[in-house]
Amino acid sequence: MKMIKYILSAFLILGCFVTIAQTQKGSVLIKNATVLTVTNGTLENTDVLVENGIIKRIGKNLNASNIQCIDGTGKYLMPGIIDAHSHVALDAVNEATAPITSEVKMGDVVNPYDIGIYRALAGGVTISHAMHGSANAIGGQNITLKHRYGTSNPEDLHMKDAPRTIKFALGENPTRVHGRGNGIQPRTRMGVDAVIRNGFNEAIQYKKAWADYENAQKQKGAKPVPPKYDSRLATLADVLDGKIIIHCHSYRADEIYALINTCREFGIKNIVFSHVNEGFKVAPELAEYTMGASVFADWWAYKFEVYYSTAYNAAILMENGVITSINSDSGELIRHLYHEAGKAQRYGQLDDDQTLALITINPAKQLGIADKVGSIEEGKQADLVLFDGHPLSVYAIPQMTFVDGVKYFDINEDPDDMRLKVSASEALEPIFLREHEHRCMHGVDFFFTNFGRNLFNHTH
Amino acid sequence: MKDMKKLLYSLILALLPILVQAQFDGEFVKPRTGKFLLQNATVVTVTKGNIENGSVLIENGKILAVGKNIQANDAEVIDCSGQFIYPGMMDAGSRLGLVEVNSLPETQDYAEIGQVTPNMQALVAVNPNSVAIPVTRVSGVTTTLAVPSGGLFPGTAALINLNGYTPDQMYAGFKGVVLNFPSSARRSTWDRRSDEDIKKEAEAAQKTLNEIWGRAETYHQLQKAKAELQYYPEMEQLSKVVAGELPLLVEVNAATDILSAIEWIQSKNAKAILMGVAEGWRVADKIAAAGLPVIVGPMLSIPTRQSDRYDAAYTNPGKMAKAGVKVVIRSNDAENTRNLPFNAGFAAAYGMGKEEALKAITINAAEVFGVADKMGSIEVGKDATLFVSTGDPFETKSQILHVFIDGYRVPMSSRHIKLYQEFLERSPGLEKN
């Protein structure tokens, strides 16, 4: 009996070590590939040496003992693709209960079993920015994920060295949910602007209350009462202090411009506009005052606020000096972002490096992780994809995908069925004709059951 | 008084030139017809190989000549050196023209109320002035099948060319009655019906289908017997299907449903084309044996089952083609019907091959729709519906340079292009001086 106890506690201790242990890091040598560094041009017949999850050396005729070697002859190696707007691996998307819900964290609802993570890897995507939905003017805090598929621990997917980000949303979605759905502000773009300003001003008051309290504490003999803790306002205070990057769902030029002005007024510089279909109309302002725009390649006309948009958006933004990325917001599109980026060559003739930047170094900049990922450079994390052709060709097929030097996708070795978990209650596997591809309004459908069946075809 | 009138008239007359000269900037470019000679291109005929340094002569809406060294002194010559000429791409399933802004029910004209509405004519609801039409045709997609959706028999689809000011000017000669075959699959991951409910609904739909079909057969027999029939527009339309005048476009996706649909089609001896066919690869041999053509797509969609390989939708058309099925590709989109070539590109990359994938959006579509005498390839006598590009249209890098539809040279302009022209270098920029 005692023996069993010892064994059990030994297991418990071991368990602790396992959970404390770092996420897996790999070593690999990829030989003789065409290396698309993104930040340093294209290197022909080049080797990339990865040690313990880090790109150690880039060069010719590299050798390493006891490291798996992969022949990249005739193949193209590019940095892992980064999706700056996704809802992959999330069990919930919208906390649509108030116009401001900055206290909510997407890190709490990560589902490591989502097959969508593997499908993204099979399309070369190594990092996704898993975001709160667009129901609220100020939504929850997002989580940047590394696609370390295979773990059952959600935390293993968190990119822990990524800065905090938060979702904001303008226009039709928050006004529909709150103004028309709940009968509260905001019902208009005036209201959205006011809600955000009120939030910022309350956060300033909150900060002041805490500063006053801390000052009062320093007085001898004083026993001040601390202000009531408020996670919602504390988060907004961090936004004001530049500790959290805003990623704002937006479409129309007027609403984008209004929030740029509000942010300037409150001294906020860390803001990225997402979707931003009419961003091209305020490209000079986006270039001057923001961390850029994360756009769709060609989506338009699925709702009125995107009727006056253009597939040339990404090209216009790039040519105006805006940091621009192309995102998916979809469990389908995330699988071929390299192709979505390629559309910026059809619509605006961007060159290869500009185009590849749209899905690598630029989204990395927007997520505040460009010093760690987003290009093939010595010292960076080894998130890499090997293609059998140039990734901007429609005929190119991803062959292997690495995160931190660990291979998570191999077209030749992986079995067809890559599910990590099969539901025991599921007698017959369900067949889905389509995914609800566009998930920004996921979780708010109960508001709109009378609005017509087509509302949720396209609803970011 | 008379003088006053005279004075007034002369004043108006004097002002007239000013009124007429009211100034508009820029010229509106309209589609125009004429005699055109496209010279020195690689002509990808689709049916008769490629012609290097070839030319295509267009007149009166038709292809007058194809080959090397074609001369025509009176034609407008377009130099296509280093470029490629392809037949217009045909999207065999789209809502283009039937919807303007999908979130606004006022602009949705593809889904009527009711389960049995085969008499709903998509062609009637096609808006020739939809902003999305020029956006689509500048991509080289020149022809689409406008498909109604909704109930069991949602309506009659119509093939349209993307140029013209009335539906009749656009109509491209094919119609088919849509049947949404009873489905055992979930519509989407939003669909939270229990397995039991799905089964019950499918069984009920199957019962309705058989009952409706029986009625249509009776109606047709009465028609043939020249009986006096009451006004019954639904049956009048289905009677044409029973008679084989109109084919059935059977939307069906899950493997078991495809097998049921094949059995049903054979038992009714109906002329049919399968649409959707997301799990066609699972039963490709059976589809081939039945000799039914398929309209498959989009390729750019997720696998129907979580256990499926990630690329199941990409490889689906290639697997069916290899099994001997005649495959046509659709986008099943509306405003982004321009993505048709990219759907074909993915099919090509994942097993179908370039040549077959190109056929799947040109000649195969024309053959399945019975319009191959007019469309689907670059051959003498066919309609001059084609485009010129800098390269392979499946590649995003390629630029589409000229588009001809029925001999009309359509302007390479759209709202997307105009916004690009206006905003690439905005004036004023950041500062207004």
UniProtKB/TrEMBL annotation, chain A:
Residues 76-400 form the Amidohydrolase-related domain. It comes from the Bacteria. SUPFAM superfamilies: Composite domain of metallo-dependent hydrolases (SSF51338), Metallo-dependent hydrolases (SSF51556). Residues 1-21 form the signal peptide. One of its GO terms (molecular function) is hydrolase activity, acting on carbon-nitrogen (but not peptide) bonds. Keywords: Hydrolase, Signal. PANTHER family: ALPHA-D-RIBOSE 1-METHYLPHOSPHONATE 5-TRIPHOSPHATE DIPHOSPHATASE. This is Imidazolonepropionase-like amidohydrolase.
From TrEMBL, chain B:
InterPro entries: Amidohydro-rel, Metal-dep_hydrolase_composite, Metal_Hydrolase, Metallo-dep_Hydrolase. It comes from the Bacteria. It holds the Pfam family Amidohydro_1. Residues 316-407 form the Amidohydrolase-related domain. Transmembrane segments: none annotated. Keywords: Hydrolase, Signal. Residues 1-22 form the signal peptide. GO terms for molecular function: hydrolase activity, acting on carbon-nitrogen (but not peptide) bonds. PANTHER family: ALPHA-D-RIBOSE 1-METHYLPHOSPHONATE 5-TRIPHOSPHATE DIPHOSPHATASE (PTHR43135). This is Imidazolonepropionase-like amidohydrolase. It comes from Cecembia rubra.
